[in-house]
Write a structure and sequence with these properties.
It is a single chain. It is built from 11 helices and 16 strands. The protein is an alpha+beta fold. Among the domains are: 214 residues, no CATH class; 98 residues, 2-Layer Sandwich (Gyrase A, domain 2).
Length: 492
């Protein structure tokens, strides 16, 4: 993915306009060598070169397109051209150019052991560059325009122009290199770097395939630009901003591509998830069958390996159970846990039974004890955790005294007799002894006799609350209102 993004960005950069580096003919410039004082700061070199140019140039600096190249900090070559000469050469609009440089600075590359004279063809001009021993910047540059004609830049024409210029220098010129160098152009290599294309033409007219590619970059590149220091500062700031914008754009494109790729990955993941769910749903019955078989096998293994013996556990728990306790439900969970539910007469019997279980050697613990007493009966529910039991064997008979003690029911605690109920006197008809069937004397109340043919009350109306009927209540003098109870009398 990273290589794909890099390839796409490279293709996009190739489609952008190529930065154009303009190489100006050397015959448009006049040059001056300047000695830089020792101790001059780096930021002060440009100002010092401007002062030297103002002192030696016959034109105001504002009307000049100038720049300089320097050898370390000892000396600099300052060159300048008037805007008028640039306009006559058709080079007045240099603003859109990536860099604007004189062509002869392409040979400011390496130092030599002794003084030398080099010839270079730059555009439609030929230049002679004078170097001191051990220096890479010429101390003097002389340039002449090439003869007019379409074949002026061919190898024979350039060699003829080189010989003419060499002869005009006189015998005082240093030893010249044979042949000459032809500057074929320059291209931007990065943000602040220019790479020159230079080929060698031998005296025989042969053009060597080996090319010299000197590089000029950094602050030295802007010092050599002829468009001025203010233009250089403004252009550098704009290029930094453009670089930041381009980097942000590249980062945004990368983020968008990553988002698109992640979206495709998400779609693929969802599709794969749906497929796997469908496969899972299709295989669910088989998986459930396998799980049930596995659970059955695990249960068998648990019974086999751990020797689960529910009957032995039940027999062990019942061997010490009092007869007053009855089991209603028995359930096993795991290989050594049994749940007992039942009834007992009192809660004390259940507590004694639990204590007995905990004291035995085959019980590990009794837990989750719950009991509830209601209507003279106690229900219980607890779990018994057993230790590993041996083979089921006949139980060892207990001593006779324990059996007798267990067989003998525990007498219930004495209960206080209920309070005596108050006796309610009733109406006695006839002899008290004959009516009650007892010999004790009962209080005798006044008696009344019912007439044979009583006359009904003519004003009587049936009333559900009336318990006496149409004949009305008995006479008040026949009963004792303190003891008489009408409802009880009529219920009897």
């Amino acid at each position: 993915m990273k290589r794909y993004l890099q390839r796409k960005l490279t293709q996009l950069e190739q489609r952008l306009p190529v930065p154009q580096v303009v190489l100006l003919p050397g015959d448009l410039f006049f040059c001056q060598s300047v000695e830089i004082p020792a101790g001059t700061q780096e930021a002060d070199v440009a100002g010092f070169a401007r002062l030297q140019l103002e002192a030696g140039a016959p034109f105001p600096v504002e009307s000049l397109a100038w720049g300089y190249v320097r050898h370390v900090r000892t000396r600099a070559l300052v060159y300048a051209a008037t805007h008028e000469r640039l306009e006559k050469a058709g080079l007045e609009d240099l603003g859109p150019a990536w860099q604007a440089l004189p062509g002869f600075i392409a040979l400011c590359d390496t130092a030599s052991a002794g003084p030398r004279l080099r010839f270079a063809s730059t555009g439609r001009a030929i230049s002679a560059l004078f170097f001191n021993a051990g220096e890479s910047v010429p101390y003097k540059v002389l340039s002449r325009p090439l003869p007019p004609g379409e074949d002026a830049e061919t190898a024979p024409k350039l060699l003829a122009a080189r010989d003419t210029l060499h002869k005009s220098l006189g015998a005082s010129a240093p030893q010249a290199e044979p042949g000459l160098w032809r500057v074929d152009g320059a291209e931007a290599d990065g943000r602040d770097k220019v790479r020159f294309r230079v080929v060698r033409i031998e005296p025989s007219g042969a053009v060597l395939d080996r090319a010299l590619e000197p590089v000029l970059g950094g602050q030295a590149l802007w010092d050599a630009d002829v468009r001025g220091r203010s233009f250089a500062a403004q252009t550098q700031r704009q290029r930094r901003q453009s670089l930041y914008i381009w980097a942000a754009f590249a980062a945004a494109c990368t983020a968008v591509l990553l988002l698109v790729l992640s979206q495709f990955v998400l779609w693929g993941t969802r599709a794969y998830t749906r497929h796997m769910r469908s496969v899972e749903d299709a295989r669910r019955p088989q998986v459930m069958l396998l799980e049930s078989k596995l659970n059955f096998a695990n249960n068998l293994e648990s019974v086999t390996e751990r020797e689960m013996k529910p009957f032995a556990m039940l027999a062990s728990a019942a061997s010490i159970k009092p007869p007053e306790i009855h089991f209603d439900r028995i359930q096993t969970s795991g290989w050594n846990v049994m749940r007992l539910e039942g009834k007992a007469g009192r809660a004390e019997q259940i507590n004694q039974y639990i204590d007995r279980l905990r004291e035995t050697s085959f019980v590990q613990d009794v837990r989750n004890v719950r009991s509830e007493s209601r209507a003279g009966q106690t229900t219980f529910d607890f779990e018994v955790v057993f230790n590993r039991l041996g083979e089921l064997a006949p139980l060892t008979p207990r001593p006779a005294e324990d059996v007798a003690q267990q067989a003998t029911p525990t007498p219930p605690p004495p209960q206080s007799p209920p309070p005596p109920m108050p006796t309610t006197p009733a109406i006695i008809v006839g002899e008290p002894e004959e009516a009650m069937g007892v010999d004790e004397e009962l209080p005798v109340y006044p008696q009344f006799e019912m007439p044979e043919n009583p006359e009904p009350d003519p004003y009587y109306r049936p009333n559900p609350e009336d318990t006496f009927g149409p004949y009305g209540p008995p006479p008040e003098e026949a009963v004792d209102p303190e003891f008489y109870d009408y409802e009880e009398d009529f219920e009897q």
